[in-house]
Amino acid sequence: MYVAVKGGEAAIRNAHALLADRRRGDRSVPALGLDQIAEQLALAVDRVMAEGSLYDRELGALAVKQARGDLIEAIFLVRAYRTTLPRFGYSRPVDTAAMLIERRVSATFKDLPGGQMLGPTFDYTHRLLDAELAGDGLPDMPAEKPVAAEPTPRVTDLLGDEGLIEENAPGTEAQVTDITREPVAFPLDRDGRLQALARGDEGFLLGLAYSTQRGYARNHPFVGELRIGEVEIELDVPELPFPVPLGRIRVTECQMVNQFKGSAKAPPQFTRGYGLVFGQSERKAMAMALCDRALRAHELGEDVVAAAQDEEFIISHSDNVQATGFVEHLKLPHYVDFQAELDLVRTMRRQAEAGDEMAEERREAAE
To answer: Domain check: are 47 and 108 in the same one?
Structure first.
Protein backbone atom coordinates (compact mmCIF):
# COMPACT_ATOMS: atom_id res chain seq x y z
CA MET A 1 0.00 0.00 0.00
CA TYR A 2 1.14 3.52 -0.81
CA VAL A 3 1.54 4.95 2.70
CA ALA A 4 4.80 6.87 2.29
CA VAL A 5 3.05 10.20 1.70
CA LYS A 6 1.99 12.53 4.47
CA GLY A 7 -1.12 11.22 6.21
CA GLY A 8 -0.61 7.58 5.29
CA GLU A 9 -3.83 5.51 5.18
CA ALA A 10 -6.02 8.49 6.06
CA ALA A 11 -4.72 10.32 2.99
CA ILE A 12 -5.51 7.30 0.84
CA ARG A 13 -9.09 7.14 2.16
CA ASN A 14 -9.51 10.82 1.44
CA ALA A 15 -8.12 10.32 -2.07
CA HIS A 16 -10.72 7.58 -2.65
CA ALA A 17 -13.51 9.85 -1.40
CA LEU A 18 -12.32 12.68 -3.64
CA LEU A 19 -12.21 10.33 -6.62
CA ALA A 20 -15.81 9.22 -5.94
CA ASP A 21 -16.88 12.87 -5.70
CA ARG A 22 -15.20 13.79 -8.98
CA ARG A 23 -16.68 10.70 -10.63
CA ARG A 24 -20.20 11.83 -9.74
CA GLY A 25 -19.55 15.38 -10.91
CA ASP A 26 -22.12 18.17 -10.68
CA ARG A 27 -25.11 16.90 -8.65
CA SER A 28 -27.46 19.09 -10.69
CA VAL A 29 -26.71 16.89 -13.71
CA PRO A 30 -28.53 13.52 -13.74
CA ALA A 31 -26.30 10.55 -13.02
CA LEU A 32 -25.49 8.18 -15.89
CA GLY A 33 -27.22 4.83 -15.78
CA LEU A 34 -25.53 1.63 -16.91
CA ASP A 35 -28.19 1.15 -19.57
CA GLN A 36 -27.34 4.59 -21.01
CA ILE A 37 -23.65 3.75 -21.18
CA ALA A 38 -24.23 0.28 -22.66
CA GLU A 39 -26.61 1.59 -25.33
CA GLN A 40 -25.20 5.03 -26.17
CA LEU A 41 -21.49 4.47 -25.55
CA ALA A 42 -21.63 1.00 -27.02
CA LEU A 43 -18.28 1.09 -28.83
CA ALA A 44 -16.48 2.05 -25.61
CA VAL A 45 -18.15 -0.86 -23.84
CA ASP A 46 -17.23 -3.17 -26.73
CA ARG A 47 -13.56 -2.24 -26.38
CA VAL A 48 -13.63 -2.85 -22.63
CA MET A 49 -15.21 -6.27 -23.16
CA ALA A 50 -12.76 -7.20 -25.92
CA GLU A 51 -9.55 -6.20 -24.16
CA GLY A 52 -10.89 -7.23 -20.77
CA SER A 53 -11.65 -10.73 -22.17
CA LEU A 54 -15.12 -10.81 -20.65
CA TYR A 55 -18.35 -10.55 -22.64
CA ASP A 56 -20.82 -8.81 -20.35
CA ARG A 57 -22.31 -5.50 -21.44
CA GLU A 58 -23.57 -4.51 -18.00
CA LEU A 59 -20.21 -5.14 -16.33
CA GLY A 60 -18.44 -3.36 -19.17
CA ALA A 61 -20.71 -0.33 -18.69
CA LEU A 62 -20.11 -0.42 -14.93
CA ALA A 63 -16.36 -0.44 -15.48
CA VAL A 64 -16.57 2.53 -17.87
CA LYS A 65 -18.59 4.46 -15.28
CA GLN A 66 -16.31 3.54 -12.38
CA ALA A 67 -13.22 4.49 -14.40
CA ARG A 68 -14.72 7.89 -15.34
CA GLY A 69 -14.38 6.99 -19.03
CA ASP A 70 -10.73 5.89 -18.80
CA LEU A 71 -11.03 2.77 -20.96
CA ILE A 72 -7.70 1.24 -19.95
CA GLU A 73 -8.63 1.57 -16.28
CA ALA A 74 -12.02 0.04 -17.13
CA ILE A 75 -10.29 -2.86 -18.89
CA PHE A 76 -8.14 -3.35 -15.78
CA LEU A 77 -11.28 -3.49 -13.60
CA VAL A 78 -12.90 -6.09 -15.85
CA ARG A 79 -9.74 -8.21 -15.97
CA ALA A 80 -9.52 -8.15 -12.17
CA TYR A 81 -13.17 -9.19 -11.84
CA ARG A 82 -12.70 -11.92 -14.44
CA THR A 83 -10.10 -13.64 -12.27
CA THR A 84 -12.74 -14.20 -9.56
CA LEU A 85 -15.12 -16.13 -11.82
CA PRO A 86 -15.35 -19.94 -11.82
CA ARG A 87 -14.39 -21.76 -15.02
CA PHE A 88 -17.08 -24.22 -16.14
CA GLY A 89 -15.44 -25.30 -19.36
CA TYR A 90 -14.63 -24.24 -22.92
CA SER A 91 -17.25 -23.56 -25.56
CA ARG A 92 -17.17 -25.03 -29.01
CA PRO A 93 -15.32 -23.12 -31.76
CA VAL A 94 -17.60 -20.38 -33.07
CA ASP A 95 -18.89 -20.85 -36.61
CA THR A 96 -18.68 -17.35 -38.06
CA ALA A 97 -20.02 -18.61 -41.41
CA ALA A 98 -23.39 -18.97 -39.65
CA MET A 99 -23.25 -15.41 -38.29
CA LEU A 100 -26.40 -13.30 -38.23
CA ILE A 101 -24.77 -10.47 -40.15
CA GLU A 102 -25.45 -6.79 -39.47
CA ARG A 103 -22.54 -5.44 -41.52
CA ARG A 104 -20.45 -7.07 -44.24
CA VAL A 105 -18.04 -5.37 -46.63
CA SER A 106 -15.26 -6.52 -48.93
CA ALA A 107 -12.56 -4.49 -50.64
CA THR A 108 -11.71 -7.33 -53.03
CA PHE A 109 -14.99 -8.33 -54.72
CA LYS A 110 -17.83 -5.97 -55.56
CA ASP A 111 -20.48 -8.63 -56.09
CA LEU A 112 -20.57 -11.25 -53.36
CA PRO A 113 -22.93 -14.15 -52.75
CA GLY A 114 -25.17 -12.75 -50.05
CA GLY A 115 -24.26 -9.16 -50.96
CA GLN A 116 -22.48 -6.39 -49.11
CA MET A 117 -24.21 -4.65 -46.19
CA LEU A 118 -23.07 -1.24 -45.01
CA GLY A 119 -24.78 -1.54 -41.63
CA PRO A 120 -23.88 0.89 -38.82
CA THR A 121 -20.63 2.60 -39.82
CA PHE A 122 -18.79 5.91 -39.62
CA ASP A 123 -17.22 5.23 -43.04
CA TYR A 124 -19.51 7.57 -44.97
CA THR A 125 -20.09 10.30 -42.39
CA HIS A 126 -18.63 13.77 -42.96
CA ARG A 127 -16.80 14.01 -39.61
CA LEU A 128 -18.58 17.26 -38.83
CA LEU A 129 -19.86 17.90 -35.31
CA ASP A 130 -23.62 17.39 -35.19
CA ALA A 131 -25.15 20.17 -33.08
CA GLU A 132 -28.44 18.28 -32.91
CA LEU A 133 -26.79 15.71 -30.67
CA ALA A 134 -26.43 18.42 -28.01
CA GLY A 135 -30.18 17.86 -27.50
CA ASP A 136 -31.77 14.45 -27.21
CA GLY A 137 -30.28 13.41 -30.57
CA LEU A 138 -33.28 11.25 -31.45
CA PRO A 139 -33.80 10.35 -35.13
CA ASP A 140 -37.24 10.74 -36.66
CA MET A 141 -37.71 6.98 -36.53
CA PRO A 142 -35.43 4.08 -35.63
CA ALA A 143 -33.79 2.31 -38.55
CA GLU A 144 -34.53 -1.32 -39.16
CA LYS A 145 -31.81 -3.59 -37.90
CA PRO A 146 -30.14 -5.20 -40.96
CA VAL A 147 -29.69 -8.95 -40.95
CA ALA A 148 -28.46 -11.00 -43.90
CA ALA A 149 -31.30 -13.05 -45.33
CA GLU A 150 -29.26 -15.61 -47.26
CA PRO A 151 -26.07 -17.62 -46.78
CA THR A 152 -22.92 -15.53 -46.84
CA PRO A 153 -19.88 -17.65 -47.75
CA ARG A 154 -16.53 -16.18 -46.87
CA VAL A 155 -14.59 -14.30 -49.55
CA THR A 156 -11.53 -16.40 -48.80
CA ASP A 157 -13.58 -19.48 -49.71
CA LEU A 158 -14.10 -18.02 -53.19
CA LEU A 159 -10.33 -17.62 -53.59
CA GLY A 160 -9.80 -21.07 -52.15
CA ASP A 161 -12.00 -22.63 -54.83
CA GLU A 162 -9.44 -21.45 -57.40
CA GLY A 163 -6.45 -22.42 -55.27
CA LEU A 164 -5.34 -18.79 -55.11
CA ILE A 165 -5.05 -18.58 -51.33
CA GLU A 166 -3.27 -20.77 -48.82
CA GLU A 167 -5.35 -23.49 -47.24
CA ASN A 168 -6.39 -23.13 -43.64
CA ALA A 169 -4.44 -25.32 -41.28
CA PRO A 170 -6.36 -28.55 -40.61
CA GLY A 171 -8.17 -28.82 -37.29
CA THR A 172 -6.47 -30.60 -34.43
CA GLU A 173 -7.68 -32.41 -31.36
CA ALA A 174 -4.85 -30.92 -29.31
CA GLN A 175 -5.92 -28.63 -26.47
CA VAL A 176 -5.98 -24.97 -27.45
CA THR A 177 -3.59 -22.70 -25.59
CA ASP A 178 -5.17 -20.55 -22.86
CA ILE A 179 -2.90 -17.58 -22.16
CA THR A 180 -5.06 -16.56 -19.18
CA ARG A 181 -4.16 -19.83 -17.45
CA GLU A 182 -0.71 -20.69 -18.76
CA PRO A 183 2.45 -18.56 -18.75
CA VAL A 184 3.32 -17.17 -22.17
CA ALA A 185 6.39 -18.90 -23.60
CA PHE A 186 7.99 -17.98 -26.91
CA PRO A 187 7.64 -18.98 -29.65
CA LEU A 188 3.85 -19.10 -29.38
CA ASP A 189 1.55 -21.22 -31.50
CA ARG A 190 -0.77 -19.16 -33.65
CA ASP A 191 -3.78 -19.80 -31.38
CA GLY A 192 -1.97 -18.31 -28.40
CA ARG A 193 -0.70 -15.42 -30.49
CA LEU A 194 -4.22 -14.59 -31.71
CA GLN A 195 -5.49 -14.63 -28.13
CA ALA A 196 -2.81 -12.16 -27.11
CA LEU A 197 -3.61 -9.91 -30.07
CA ALA A 198 -7.34 -10.03 -29.28
CA ARG A 199 -6.56 -8.79 -25.73
CA GLY A 200 -3.95 -6.30 -26.93
CA ASP A 201 -4.25 -2.54 -26.79
CA GLU A 202 -6.03 -1.21 -29.87
CA GLY A 203 -3.80 1.85 -30.23
CA PHE A 204 -0.58 -0.15 -29.97
CA LEU A 205 -1.71 -2.71 -32.55
CA LEU A 206 -3.05 0.05 -34.80
CA GLY A 207 0.36 1.75 -34.87
CA LEU A 208 2.10 -1.54 -35.68
CA ALA A 209 -0.47 -2.36 -38.36
CA TYR A 210 0.08 1.06 -39.93
CA SER A 211 3.83 0.47 -39.95
CA THR A 212 3.36 -2.69 -42.03
CA GLN A 213 1.62 -0.63 -44.70
CA ARG A 214 4.45 1.90 -44.81
CA GLY A 215 7.16 -0.59 -45.69
CA TYR A 216 8.27 -1.85 -42.28
CA ALA A 217 7.25 -5.42 -43.05
CA ARG A 218 6.52 -7.48 -46.16
CA ASN A 219 2.81 -6.73 -46.33
CA HIS A 220 0.44 -5.71 -49.15
CA PRO A 221 -3.04 -6.21 -47.64
CA PHE A 222 -6.61 -6.17 -48.90
CA VAL A 223 -9.68 -6.48 -46.73
CA GLY A 224 -11.02 -9.73 -48.07
CA GLU A 225 -13.99 -9.43 -45.77
CA LEU A 226 -15.07 -7.55 -42.67
CA ARG A 227 -18.24 -8.76 -41.01
CA ILE A 228 -20.11 -7.88 -37.82
CA GLY A 229 -22.95 -9.87 -36.37
CA GLU A 230 -24.13 -12.34 -33.78
CA VAL A 231 -22.81 -15.87 -33.38
CA GLU A 232 -24.12 -18.67 -31.21
CA ILE A 233 -22.05 -20.03 -28.34
CA GLU A 234 -22.40 -23.73 -27.55
CA LEU A 235 -21.00 -25.83 -24.72
CA ASP A 236 -20.40 -29.57 -24.72
CA VAL A 237 -21.78 -31.16 -21.56
CA PRO A 238 -20.38 -34.67 -20.86
CA GLU A 239 -23.78 -35.99 -19.74
CA LEU A 240 -25.54 -34.92 -22.94
CA PRO A 241 -25.13 -36.19 -26.53
CA PHE A 242 -25.63 -32.72 -28.00
CA PRO A 243 -24.14 -29.27 -27.42
CA VAL A 244 -26.05 -26.85 -25.22
CA PRO A 245 -26.61 -23.37 -26.69
CA LEU A 246 -25.62 -20.65 -24.22
CA GLY A 247 -26.78 -17.63 -26.20
CA ARG A 248 -25.51 -15.22 -28.84
CA ILE A 249 -22.75 -12.64 -28.73
CA ARG A 250 -21.82 -9.89 -31.18
CA VAL A 251 -18.36 -10.13 -32.76
CA THR A 252 -16.31 -8.48 -35.49
CA GLU A 253 -14.32 -10.70 -37.85
CA CYS A 254 -11.72 -9.54 -40.38
CA GLN A 255 -10.08 -11.67 -43.05
CA MET A 256 -7.10 -9.93 -44.62
CA VAL A 257 -5.79 -11.15 -47.97
CA ASN A 258 -2.08 -10.56 -48.49
CA GLN A 259 0.20 -10.92 -51.49
CA PHE A 260 2.83 -13.69 -51.27
CA LYS A 261 5.49 -14.25 -53.92
CA GLY A 262 5.93 -17.89 -53.01
CA SER A 263 8.78 -19.95 -51.59
CA ALA A 264 10.49 -23.28 -52.08
CA LYS A 265 7.54 -24.96 -50.36
CA ALA A 266 4.61 -22.92 -51.70
CA PRO A 267 3.66 -21.36 -55.06
CA PRO A 268 2.78 -17.67 -55.47
CA GLN A 269 -0.58 -17.13 -53.82
CA PHE A 270 -2.44 -15.02 -51.31
CA THR A 271 -1.94 -15.54 -47.60
CA ARG A 272 -4.21 -14.83 -44.66
CA GLY A 273 -4.31 -12.47 -41.72
CA TYR A 274 -7.08 -12.94 -39.18
CA GLY A 275 -8.80 -10.84 -36.54
CA LEU A 276 -11.78 -11.63 -34.29
CA VAL A 277 -12.90 -9.48 -31.35
CA PHE A 278 -15.96 -8.96 -29.15
CA GLY A 279 -18.54 -6.38 -30.19
CA GLN A 280 -18.23 -3.87 -33.02
CA SER A 281 -14.50 -3.19 -33.13
CA GLU A 282 -13.57 -2.89 -36.80
CA ARG A 283 -10.34 -0.94 -36.34
CA LYS A 284 -9.11 -3.44 -33.76
CA ALA A 285 -10.04 -6.47 -35.88
CA MET A 286 -8.27 -5.02 -38.92
CA ALA A 287 -5.15 -4.08 -36.94
CA MET A 288 -5.14 -7.55 -35.39
CA ALA A 289 -5.36 -9.19 -38.83
CA LEU A 290 -2.48 -7.09 -40.19
CA CYS A 291 -0.30 -7.90 -37.18
CA ASP A 292 -1.23 -11.58 -37.37
CA ARG A 293 -0.02 -11.71 -40.98
CA ALA A 294 3.19 -9.84 -40.17
CA LEU A 295 3.92 -12.25 -37.31
CA ARG A 296 3.75 -15.21 -39.69
CA ALA A 297 7.04 -14.15 -41.30
CA HIS A 298 9.02 -17.11 -39.92
CA GLU A 299 6.31 -19.56 -40.91
CA LEU A 300 6.27 -18.25 -44.49
CA GLY A 301 10.04 -18.06 -44.85
CA GLU A 302 10.21 -14.25 -44.91
CA ASP A 303 12.98 -12.14 -43.45
CA VAL A 304 12.18 -10.60 -40.06
CA VAL A 305 13.19 -6.98 -40.52
CA ALA A 306 10.54 -4.93 -38.70
CA ALA A 307 9.06 -4.56 -35.22
CA ALA A 308 5.65 -5.77 -36.43
CA GLN A 309 7.26 -9.14 -37.31
CA ASP A 310 8.88 -9.62 -33.90
CA GLU A 311 6.60 -11.88 -31.89
CA GLU A 312 8.25 -11.42 -28.51
CA PHE A 313 8.34 -7.62 -28.90
CA ILE A 314 4.65 -7.35 -29.84
CA ILE A 315 3.19 -9.89 -27.43
CA SER A 316 5.29 -8.65 -24.52
CA HIS A 317 4.22 -5.03 -24.99
CA SER A 318 0.71 -5.13 -26.44
CA ASP A 319 -1.14 -5.79 -23.17
CA ASN A 320 -2.28 -2.39 -21.89
CA VAL A 321 -2.95 -3.66 -18.36
CA GLN A 322 0.64 -4.84 -17.97
CA ALA A 323 1.97 -1.73 -19.69
CA THR A 324 -0.11 0.53 -17.46
CA GLY A 325 1.12 -1.18 -14.31
CA PHE A 326 4.74 -0.90 -15.33
CA VAL A 327 4.49 2.75 -16.36
CA GLU A 328 2.30 3.89 -13.46
CA HIS A 329 4.47 2.21 -10.84
CA LEU A 330 6.87 5.08 -11.52
CA LYS A 331 4.50 7.25 -9.46
CA LEU A 332 5.19 5.14 -6.36
CA PRO A 333 8.02 6.03 -3.93
CA HIS A 334 11.49 5.39 -5.30
CA TYR A 335 13.30 7.42 -2.67
CA VAL A 336 16.05 4.90 -1.92
CA ASP A 337 16.72 4.20 -5.60
CA PHE A 338 16.85 7.90 -6.39
CA GLN A 339 19.18 8.69 -3.50
CA ALA A 340 21.56 5.97 -4.73
CA GLU A 341 21.52 7.44 -8.25
CA LEU A 342 21.87 10.97 -6.85
CA ASP A 343 25.00 9.93 -4.96
CA LEU A 344 26.31 8.23 -8.12
CA VAL A 345 25.76 11.32 -10.27
CA ARG A 346 27.42 13.54 -7.65
CA THR A 347 30.41 11.18 -7.54
CA MET A 348 30.68 11.16 -11.34
CA ARG A 349 30.52 14.97 -11.41
CA ARG A 350 33.33 15.22 -8.83
CA GLN A 351 35.43 12.77 -10.83
CA ALA A 352 34.74 14.69 -14.04
CA GLU A 353 35.66 17.99 -12.39
CA ALA A 354 38.85 16.47 -10.97
CA GLY A 355 39.73 15.14 -14.41
CA ASP A 356 39.16 18.58 -15.94
CA GLU A 357 41.45 20.16 -13.33
CA MET A 358 44.19 17.61 -14.03
CA ALA A 359 43.87 18.16 -17.76
CA GLU A 360 44.11 21.92 -17.26
CA GLU A 361 47.24 21.50 -15.09
CA ARG A 362 48.85 19.32 -17.78
CA ARG A 363 48.11 21.93 -20.46
CA GLU A 364 49.59 24.69 -18.31
CA ALA A 365 52.68 22.56 -17.61
CA ALA A 366 53.12 21.88 -21.31
CA GLU A 367 52.96 25.61 -22.10
So the answer is: no
